[in-house]
Structures are given as structure tokens and as C-alpha cells.
Amino acid sequence: KIPLAVMWQEWLAADSHTNSHECPKRPTTLHHRFANSTHQLSHFLGIPEAGKRAEQCSCCHADCKAHHETHLYSVKAAGLRLPIWAHGHRHLEKKAQNPTQIYCFVYHASITKLGWRAGPRVSEPLVNVVLEALQAFRLVSFGDGGGALRPLYMDVQATTPLDPRVLDSMLPYLMAYYGNPHSRTHAYGWESEAAVEKARRQVADLIGADSREIIFTSGATESNNMAIKGVARFYKSRKKHIITTQTEHKCVLDSCRSLETEGFRVTYLPVKKNGLIDLKELESAFQPDTSLVSVMTVNNEIGVKQPIRDIGEICREHKVFFHTDAAQAIGKIPMDVNDMKIDIMSISGHKIYGPKGVGALYVRRRPRVRLEPLQSGGGQERGLRSGTVPTPLAVGLGAACEVAQQEMEYDHKRISQLAERLVTKIMSEVPDVVMNGDREHRYPGCVNLSFAYVEGESLLMALKDVALSSGSACTSASLEPSYVLRAIGTDEDLAHSSIRFGIGRFTTEEEVDYTVRKCVQHVKRLREMSPLWEMVQDGIDLKSIKWTQH
Fold it and tell me: Quick one: CA dihedral 329, 333, 336, 341, positive or negative?
């Protein structure tokens, strides 16, 4: 029986003592995630040399602590041949116990070519089991038509893949340590409670908070609902006014609209063309009964970073609570709730390489912020969020926060370089491309570009081998132009031609270059079919044309 966990073992690492040229930082042992090597798989299948390494890993890379290489492995089973590119190979220092040990894993792999038939030595059911194992780790997807290539993933604002280290931390609590963390009478409950409290500390450490200020939720949507509705309803006898912006996430805007039906007043601040709010307009929006200001840290569509510290100062001066949706910022840019004077903060697990279905809400204790709970029950989470805390998910969120805290600086630098590479290459090869949002005050991993004279949906369909989006995943099914782009004054035709590129922890240079190459190719092809592009090439000013409707 083949284990579903498939591990790719580095040959060079397995036999490091034979290397004549050793890197001084090279570890004696390398631990690879995704269990069992191609060697083991080949031994199981009874096929010699099933795993073959195409090129050596450059362990004497200038940056031995963290580097990215591309390796080619192939699994041969009679007629079965699966060339597998393992992307995103990283050597990461594990600081626990043995600082010289490197925590090394291969994260992302995709089938580049698939063609197989059952041979005399390998039965078709066995081949299916192997393929199922590979599929389980996103190596290849299967539909009714058989094998299919999976696209490159460039949509990390929608969700991020689970970091293997996070999965490792969760597994014991999915199997062995399954106690209810709220059971106080036996060891099963104590074990789970200890794990949940450790995760709470890990989340708090990432944002400079006290662990008692962290409330576990099901995700950022619930956290945003709790923050906005909870504060508004608790203080409704004295305060009935809320301030937010026009470019907030849909769950924030819908929460505010829901409160308007209950008699609350909401001011939706406009943003400037660069996506930033005008602090003077914020100052003038305060009213005597304003209870809350809600402004997101990093916009999920255009990546703009709001001046959170300045907003926090203004809110503190007016003695108004300040909430920020930090789902796209946590673990990617430094956040300190005390320095930024944030009173309430929403956090999502699956945006920081953690599991889906878990998030957190930071609620300040001093000065104390009071919330009215959205649901009733056992009174867990300080009585603010009743319901059993899912131990494995909370542990996963904590682990994701710890990894992010350790690697944030490196990830940010590397993602910035990849983003610059993507933008520079596209803009140098394709004219009339507009970057949406401020170029300076932004998170680099979110790149939103509008390709003039190209329909965005057509471009997305053409780029079927790259997973991209035209905006928020919550509204991606709509053909309406993004309300965020409309809010920053983007022309409707450019709003319809926008594509969001997401670059994350496991994105490689090869993936960026491939995306650029395909994007340039299809933009040029689609423009050749556009009569508007032909008119522009002929020197016609489209804005000077008076269009008539027939």
C-alpha cells in the first residue's frame, strides 16, 4: 500500500559525505516534507532507477540559508512516465533545539507532461494508486477527460497553500490529541487546551499583543462581522455612527449596510486615485456619536497600504475605537497593535499559509473594547465567541503566525524582487499597461494591472494555464467591474481589463517568467483582434470620437 504522503528526497543530501566541496552552512541531515522518496516508490514498484535527479542542487549558493532551485524528477513504471518539476526548494534554518539543522522541504510541484499506459509489470490499479497519491499533493489534477495539467498558482490574495510545516503541527491534533480543549476533567482536554493556548500566544506575538486579547474565529469574515456589529450594538444607546471607506472588503461593507437597516449611520469615505484615504476627510467625518472607524490595512484587490499608524493616532485623539481588517497584511508586513494604536484587528488563517476555516480577532483589553457577541452558547473565548475551538485549526494558525514572524523579512524582500521582475518585464514588452493603486504605499505581492483594449475576462480565459483573477474571490463570478477600481476613479474600460497577479512565499522566478511570457503573448493576440486597438495604432484619439448608438 503506497502512503499518500509522497516525499522527494534529495540525493545529494542523502549522501552529503561524498561531496568534495562542502558548504560550511550545509547541514548534516536534510528533512524533506511530503514523506517517502522516489527511491522508496521505485523499490515498492520493483523498478530500478525510478527516481532520477536531473541537475545538482547548488548548495554552495551565495545565500546558503535560503535559496531556490528547480529539480527534475521522473517516475517510470513500464509505460508510466511522469516528469515532475519540483518548484520552490528552500533551505530554512530551524532554530529549535539544533540551530544548525536545516528544515528543508519541497513545497510545490506540478506535472509538466502526462502520458501513461499500464505495462506488464505494473497493473492499472497500481498505477491509479500512484497517480492518486500524486494528485493528493497537487501534483496533477484529474477530470473526466483523464490527466490534465494544473495551472501555475498566482492568486495568493484569494488564498495561500498550506505551508508543510503548518500541516506538520496540525497532524497530531487531527489524530492522536483529539480532546475537547474546553474539557477540564481529563488529560485529553488539558492537552488540547495547552495547544490552543500556545497557538494564542503565537498569534499574539506576531502582532505585539497579549495572548488574552486573541479570540479565535472561523476566519476574517466572522472577525469583521464581530468587530463592526459587536461594537456598534454594544454602544448603540449612546453612539450610532460608524466611519469606513468605499474600498473595504465586501464583508465590512455588507456589515455596515446591515447596521444601517437597524438605524445606524455610516460614512463611507472616498479614496484618492492612488487608493489612499485623505486623512483630512477622516478628521472631518467624526461626529459626537461616532463609535468606530474601520479601515483595512492592505487592500485585497490593489494591494494599497493605508496609513494605519496615522489613522490610529487620529482615532485615539477622538476617543473612537479603531478596527482594521488585516487579513492581507498579517505575516507579510510588520504589525504592532500598540504602536499603531489599533483597538480591534481581524486575522485570517488561509491568507498566511495556514488552514482554511480559522481566523482570529484581536480585541484590546486596556483601554477595554466591549463587543456584543453574535452567537450564544457555552461562553467560550471570553464569552465573545461561543462554540468549541477547533484545536487542529487553531494550532495551524499559530504555527503559520510563528513561521511568518521568522521569515517575514526574507519573504518580503524576495516577493518584492519577483513583483518588480513581473511588472518591469510586462511593461517593457506591452504598451498601455496601467498599474492600479499607489506604486509606493503598497504590498508588493499584490499587483493589479489593467491592459488597455483587452477584455479582462478574455485574457483570463486565454491564460488558462496560470491561476489568476480579476479581483476579489468573493465577487469574481460577477461580470461587473471592480467596485474598488471604480472607487479610485479607474475608467470603466480599464476596470474591465484588470488582472490581479498574486506573488507569494512559494512563487518562483520560473513561474513569474512563464506568466509574463504567456501574458504578453495573449495580450498581443487579443489586441490584434480589437478594432479599438487598430484605431489607436492609426493615431486616432478615441476620446475625441462621438459614439452614436444604433
Answer: negative
Contact (CB, 8 A) for 380 and 197 = no
* CATH, range 166-404: 3.40.640.10
Domain spans of the chain, in order of start = 11-150, 166-404, 409-537
pLDDT band at 150 (very low <50, low <70, confident <90, very high): confident
pTM here is: 0.75
Quote the CA–CA distance of 365 and 371 in Å, as a whole number.
11
**Side chain identity at residue 366, one-letter code:** R
Catalytic positions, please? 474
pLDDT band at 480 (very low <50, low <70, confident <90, very high): confident
508: nearest Cα among 163, 83, 69, 159? 69
Q: How far apart are the first and last CA of the chain?
A: 68
- Is CATH 3.90.1150.10 correct for 409-537? yes
Task: Please check the confidence at residue 412 and state whether its pLDDT lies above 90.
Answer: yes
Note the helical H segments in 72-186. Answer: 124-136, 164-175
CA 190 to each of CA 182, 184, 266, 494: distance values in angstroms, whole numbers, following the listed order: 8, 6, 44, 56
